Amino acid sequence: MTTKLEFLKKYHLFKELDPEDLEDLAALVEEYEYRDGTVVAYQRDAADSLIIVKSGRLYAKTVERGIVTQTRHYLPGQYFGLDWLFAPHVHPATIQAKAHDDQPVRLLVLRSRNFLPFLSGHHDVIDALEPVYDATDTQVAGFPEAQYAEALKMKAKRDRRSNTMKILPDELIEFIDRRSGWYLFVRLIPVILFFLLVTVLPFTFLTTQPPGSLLYNMQFWCPGALSLFAIAWGVFRFFDWTNDYFIVTNRRVIHREFNLRAFRVDIKIARIDQIQSVTVLKPSLLANLFKFGTVKLTTASQYGVILFDNISQPKRVAEALDRLTKRVSTLDASREQTLVRRSIESYFGFDQPYELVGEESAGAAADEPEKMGCWGTIAHRYQWRVEEDGVITYHKHFLVALAAMFWPLLIGAIIAVLAVLAVRFNWVTWQLGAGVLTPIYVILLLWLVWDLENWRNDLYQLDGRFIFDIDRMPFGFGESRKQAPLQNIQNVKAYTPGLLHTIFNYGFVEVETAGVDSNIVFEHVPFPGVVQSDIFQQIEEMKQRQREAEDTRRHKSFAVLLDVYKQEEEQGRMPRRTPPPPPWEDEDEEE
Questions:
Q1: pLDDT at residue number 30
Q2: Are 140 and 191 within one domain?
Q3: Do 92 and 190 have their domain in common?
Q4: Domain of 99: which CATH number?
Q5: What's the longest Cα–Cα distance across the chain?
Q6: Rounded to 5 degrees, what are φ and ψ at 19?
Q7: Top-confidence residue, 358 or 362
Q8: Does 31 share its domain with 138?
């Protein structure tokens, strides 16, 4: 039988992938062999994997109120769950393995938790991974819950990312927009009127003035200056409008507000499950006339109310949030069902109906660390964001290091200019100048190294459980450390406070915590929106682990209860809970 890599090379879904990308992807794909007649997936369980039938076949059956409503066979070479790689869904059917023509049932499974990190290092895969359209594949087994349109969002997922906002690996953008173009037009009306006023009226009222007079000259230079002011005013309002974003993903709502007057960017984020109510408002005549409005989101986050104000399609936001809220509720129920089943199977020690078909060479290749050259090691050492072994480390922006090194660089440049002038005018000889300057430049070099290491040693870290603010002196001369558990974080604010910060896209991330002396502030970090998203992602993953651990303990108690009940029933000690049937019913059955 062919190996995973050989099969994937010929598979139509991956035919556009580069050989290196395909080899890396094959290392993430797991191959399972299922026993004939066993269940591969249960209806209403959580679904987050792409499944390809390599051999054998699958039989999918949907049951609603005890009635089979849909059936479908998956033959070798067919797949389902491509969209589940990006947005988890619920299995719409119970799927059973069926051996065919003496061929065992072998499935290739690509899990979302492996595929999404893979995309971060293989950006071109989304462009190459285009699903082949087939009218029979627009729905999985004809079930409306599995929408083919989700798969078509794969390319848009990457292309629609904002440079200042990080979309999490398992996020899909459901809605992204800025304020309405009609809202911009309304704000430009005073600018247009002012422009017309300063360009038309002077020529109307001043053309009768005698040539050479002050009023006659004013009709030429005054309208020009005021027109430039009006144009600058309009450009200011345009750029103030174009840099504000409202984003709804399958996990969060995001409001990015750029205040051009203060050159400050503020980002507000709330999870979908924190949204308590959604209200659509059209508060003015102009809003109704030009069909734009405001969506008021009341949330359980620290921001309280988040406004998507003056957007062109406010009802789309309300509809998307309503759809996502229902999806979150459905997924929570499906995950609960999946965890209950796994807990019971683990407690009673059920045999798994499948075997993992291993290929050690592929796994070893996937786990082999990437080798870096000398320059790669140096670049890795001074990157602003480094993720290793589950720990994310941030440095301050490199402009902070340059500012710290300003004085030794300036002093060195001044000394160099003075030395050249001294030699040029024969004030000193080259030998004397070199003897004097050498120790000075050694001191300046040590000063530069100290400042550079002092910048590199100031770290901010996330490790999945804690958040750290580490301030170290160079070469081990001292260290101060502040940390807080992720579960104590109450809110995270990201902003760029000024013109220079906005131009070079660095700023502050303020982490409001409970139980520590003061808040933790990430100062002068590049891409504060990315850092904010990282922190929220770590918090979500931490809460998910806590929920799973708590659910596992709770489900184990259910399994113990079932075990005790089964023991008592087998020993005949369980009393009857309903009255026995009347005697005449037994006589009728005998007759």
A1: 92
A2: no
A3: no
A4: 2.60.120.10
A5: 134
A6: -55, -40
A7: 358
A8: yes
